[in-house]
UniProtKB/TrEMBL annotation:
PANTHER family xref list: ABC TRANSPORTER PERMEASE PROTEIN, SUGAR ABC TRANSPORTER INTEGRAL MEMBRANE PROTEIN-RELATED
Location in or out of the cell: Cell membrane
Pfam families to which the protein is assigned, alphabetical: BPD_transp_2
Organism name: Pseudothauera nasutitermitis
Annotated membrane topology: Multi-pass membrane protein
Top-rank taxon: Bacteria
Keywords recorded for this protein, A-Z: Cell membrane, Membrane, Transmembrane, Transmembrane helix
TM stretches of this protein: 6-28, 35-56, 62-84, 91-109, 143-160, 181-208, 214-234, 241-258, 270-287
Higher taxonomy: Bacteria, Pseudomonadati, Pseudomonadota, Betaproteobacteria, Rhodocyclales
InterPro entries (alphabetical): ABC_transp_permease (IPR001851)
Designated name of the protein: ABC transporter permease
Chief localization: membrane
């Protein structure tokens, strides 16, 4: 592999892994509070269409990202009301949110299907972008790529070093005990769910405004489900989320490079396109063989409803 090909593949891997990092870190915070939200696919789709529509109307990618963030939070608020206030089942509510979001985004996005946005220029960091092989791949990227790195460090510090992160983890482990010592369990869970929805919306905005500056139905293409699997793969650890996202991103990009290289292979292109999802299934099967590994960091109250006055 020559240097230029390596740089191009590393660049593409970082870009492909970025929405997975953003969405998975948001879901990780939500799940560490004990809330299982399976609606990431729908929240990403709504974030993508909202971001595209606002960027197209205003010409500002940043306003588009804010719109995507708001759309994701609005979807998460609906989920929070159903599961935290009305005590609906979290799994069923999350699946309904995913289906609803994908369908509603397709309806809203119909007028934009033949529209393309201008490419958002990358931000090149002087000097370190000149490092051979990796400089151009890592330090000549879109703004949201740098945001994903900052988000990783923020979540890592929040969960491991801050008092608020300790409280959030306590709520995820034992909401009854946290409530008994005076913490507002439902409010904390609402905030965690809203944060997860906001990051899902930003991940969707990245896809429609930065990654492929256009809107098409189904453009999220299962990334929300991969992000959910990634949290389990990472056993609820931020660093493992970062590594896993780039591994999945590398699988996505590798199959594209193989298809675009013109190599004569015996496998149909549809099989290569399915590689990221096969990788997701394999990872989950391998992890599931060791239940102790999952229980090691899994929040004890994950997916369980809690009513303070019960």
């Amino acid at each position: 592999m020559d240097g230029a090909l390596f740089t191009n593949m590393l660049f593409a891997t970082v870009v492909a892994g970025t929405p997975l990092i953003i969405v998975a870190l948001g879901l990780l915070v939500s799940e560490r509070a004990g809330v299982l939200n399976l609606g990431a696919e729908g929240m990403m789709a709504m974030g993508a269409v909202a971001a595209f529509a606002v960027t197209h109307a205003t010409g500002s990618p940043w306003l588009g990202v804010l719109a995507g963030l708001g759309a994701g939070m609005a979807m998460a608020l609906v989920f929070g009301f159903l599961t935290l206030t009305l005590q609906a089942n979290q799994v069923a509510s999350g699946l309904a949110l995913a289906i609803f979001g994908v369908g509603l985004s397709a309806f809203i996005g119909k007028p934009f299907e033949s529209v393309a946005l201008p490419t958002v220029p990358a931000i090149r960091i002087p000097f370190i972008a000149d490092i051979p092989l990796i400089g151009e791949a890592l330090y000549n990227q879109q703004a949201l790529v740098y945001f994903s790195w900052a988000l990783f460090w923020a979540v890592l510090w929040f969960l491991a070093r801050s008092r608020a992160g300790l409280v959030l983890r306590a709520v995820g482990e034992s909401p009854a005990a946290a409530h008994a010592i005076g913490y507002p369990v439902v409010l904390i869970r609402y905030l965690a769910v809203l944060f997860g929805g906001a990051m899902a919306g930003v991940g969707g905005a990245f896809l429609s405004v930065y990654y492929t500056p256009m809107w098409m139905e189904g453009m999220v293409a299962g990334r929300g489900w991969i992000a959910l699997a990634l949290v389990v793969f990472a056993t609820w650890r931020p660093l493992r989320v970062l590594v896993g996202a780039y591994l999945f991103g590398g699988v996505m990009i590798t199959q594209l490079f193989i298809q675009g290289s013109g190599l004569q292979i015996d496998f149909p292109s549809q099989f290569l396109s399915s590689l990221p999802y096969w990788a997701t299934i394999v990872v989950l099967v391998v992890i599931s063989r060791n239940p102790n590994l999952i229980r090691l960091n899994s929040p004890a109250s994950l997916g369980r409803s809690y009513r303070p006055d019960a």
